What does this fold into?
Amino acid sequence: MSSIEKISDDLLEAFSLLEKAARIIERSAKILSSKNLESEQPWVPLAQAVEETGMSVRQMQETIRNKYWKHGKQYINTSQGIRPYYKVNPSEVQIWLQTSPEKRPPAKNKRARRS
It folds into this structure.
């Protein structure tokens, strides 16, 4: 085998390895981008969620106060002060609304109703 043929074989092998590495990098990039899209949740203020959920602001506040929704799933509190400022994830709220009441998880530490 001449040195030119050996160099050609080495180059072919190197290109083959580069092609495999490029495919792996491409797959990894797709996985990472899909995970980033999944982690970005559309948190919107209660007033904006009224149209998307069909619930009033007061209904959403009561549902949060009575702990029917899970923090970080259906709602978050973005307040840095005394008064809470809630944002909700409309898609998770829709899923919760479409679940029959019997199948919904029970409220945690439900507050007593004021008379």
The chain has a mean pLDDT of 86. The beta strands are 44-45, 75-77, 86-88. The first helix runs from residue 3 to 39. The two ends are 96 Å apart (CA to CA).
